[in-house]
Amino acid sequence: MKLDEVKDPIKEIDARAGVYPVYTNEEGQTFVHMMIPSDPRFGGLLPQMGKGGIDEGESAEDAAMREGYEELGLISNNVARITQLTTSVRIGKKEKYQLTVFVAEVKDPDNFDPYGWESGWAGWIELEKAIETSRKDQRQFLRLLKNKYSNKRSTELVENATDDFETYINNKYDNVVFSVYDSSEDLIKLDSIIIKDKKQGTGTQIMGELCDYADKNNKRIILIPGTKDDHHGTTSRIRLVKFYKRFGFIENKGRRRDFSLPAGMIREPQ
Question: What was the pLDDT predicted at 8?
């Protein structure tokens, strides 16, 4: 067999997405909305998240919301906030897939549509009980969810810190428009960096400070390099890609692409 005939299992990996709707009552108890399949051949008879494949051209978040509606009755306008919890890769003998898990905080725990035929039951379970009674291969996600809500106040402080960092950069550097925000708990999105007065080294200094901030907070950074645009001062996308690679960014494309993220550039904390 020739080397180029060997199949790469990662290349053939499926992309899937799932969602846990959550609700915290006035007493501070957190509940998670789960389902049990109507046919035990498709996931057994234990509570589990609503999940499924990501269609072509569909984002992971959109797929999670679609599956949430089909299997749980989750209504999009009843979601106050949706965030990415984690991404997990499973490579077994029968299946290979990357699963992106989202958390959807709901406004009204009673405002759900009827669930679809794939579910034999769907409803709220107290989080601690869900950890004990759910599918074993999904309990790791529920433990992450428990940790997320146990440290919710700390998370909010970190998000505020990112807002403060954005303010700090805009105040420190003249004629600069700098915008970042927390896309998820461990991910910073660089939305824009526009330098109106092309001073030598300003962009390098700002990117250095951003990377230092991300490393200290153990956060990834994602960005989408701009195309040529005289209004924003972008002269060449290729030049920008080379510039970002100097700071440890890699392009999110090819067989190793993380389908839960846009096809931009990613930097891991160092």
Answer: 46
Q: 23 by DSSP, 3-state: which?
A: strand
Domain closes at, from 150, 175, 201: 150
**228 and 134 in one domain?**
no
Q: Are residues 161 and 127 in the same domain?
A: no
- pLDDT for the residue numbered 261: 77
Instruction: Give the domain range for residue 245.
Output: 153-267
**Cα 97 to Cα 9: distance, rounded to the nearest angstrom:** 10
Q: Are residues 221 and 234 in the same domain?
A: yes
Q: Measured at the alpha carbon of residue 221, what is the angle toward residues 238 and 174, in degrees to the nearest 5?
A: 75
pLDDT means per 10 residues, the chain with 270 residues, are: 43 83 89 94 88 92 96 95 88 76 95 95 95 90 85 48 82 85 83 76 88 87 72 66 91 80 83
Q: CA distances (Å), 152 to each of 79, 144, 165, 202, 269, in order?
A: 18, 12, 20, 35, 22
Q: Parallel, antiparallel, or unpaired: how do β-strands 176-184 and 187-195 relate?
A: antiparallel
Question: H-type helices in the chain, by residue range?
Answer: 60-72, 127-133, 139-150, 152-172, 202-216, 237-245
Closest CA to 177 of 186, 188, 166, 187: 166
For residue 5, what pLDDT is reported?
43
CB neighbour list of residue 216: distance below 8 Å, 6 or more residues apart: none
Domain boundary among 125, 150, 175: 150
pLDDT score for 245: 92
Give the pLDDT confidence score for residue 195 in this predicted structure: 81
